[in-house]
Design goal:
about 35% helix; alpha/beta; five-stranded mixed sheet; single chain
Length: about 250
């Protein structure tokens, strides 16, 4: 059995999960909730077996698996979301993603985000952000847009574009298709850990909307908000969000 370093393992997991999840669409035999349930179950089982073989001493936090609280005593914890953007996946859209992160002492030090329908996996050890002209665009949640987001966009002089998964939105900033991603409607750690790991490794800014760092492997996995943006926009965006009490209360 070939030994894999953490970056290779994360990449293989993201690729394998994407292949498994896409395979459940075969023949169009399942749809909607049935498709999403089967895809999640099969991918979670495979992921758990792989980590049990290759990293048996590490903790795991995954959306579709009961939380094993022993992770809180571990330095190394894998945070997984086999389908981020379940609604998009189950309705045939392409803006869903696969999240795999290794969090070490609360920080996503290794990460891979897959866009399976595009055949791409972004690794934190092999990534950089596109540093070109501003796109003039802010990406936001398609299913749960934050209150007051259009006022914030107006102050920043940006157009709003709704998208599906958090991973797809953060990668759109990395690729230069958007200047920033803002969300204030609440997420969980598995929505954020892998995309944040990739974004930070690529040189983007990623934080809470008050500028404080994002922390992972907490007892409460809820995360209220997030900002990912081009580094040159950070101060301006934080100044604007600070003026919106609906977000900062």
């Amino acid at each position: 059995m070939r030994d894999l370093d953490d970056h290779d393992l994360a990449s293989h997991l993201a690729t394998g999960i994407g292949d498994i999840v896409r395979g459940t669409r075969a023949g169009g035999l399942l749809h909607g909730r049935s498709l999403a349930r089967v895809a999640n179950d099969v991918a979670e089982d495979w992921t758990g077996e792989v980590l049990a073989v290759h990293r048996p001493d590490d903790g795991i936090l995954s959306e579709g698996v009961a939380d094993d609280r022993s992770r809180l005593a571990k330095s190394r914890v894998w945070i997984i979301d086999v389908i981020d953007g379940t609604k998009e996946f189950s309705t045939g859209r392409s803006d869903w993603s696969v999240h795999v992160a290794l969090v070490v002492d609360g920080r996503p030090t290794v990460a891979a985000v897959g866009l399976p329908d595009a055949g791409r996996v972004f690794r934190s050890d092999q990534v950089d952000h596109v540093d070109g002209p501003s796109s003039g665009t802010m990406v936001i949640s398609r299913n749960n847009p934050p209150a007051g987001i259009h006022e914030v966009a107006d102050e920043l002089g940006l157009h709003v574009r709704p998208m599906g998964s958090a991973g797809a939105k953060m990668l759109s900033v990395l690729l230069g298709d958007a200047d920033l991603y803002l969300h204030a409607g609440g997420q969980n750690e598995w929505d954020q850990a892998a995309p944040v790991g990739v974004a930070l490794a690529a040189g983007l800014h990623a934080s809470r909307i008050d500028g404080s760092p994002l922390e992972f492997n907490k007892s409460d996995t809820y995360s209220p908000d997030i900002l990912v943006c081009r580094p040159d926009l950070t101060e301006k965006v934080l100044a604007v969000t600070a003026g919106h009490p609906v977000w900062t209360a």
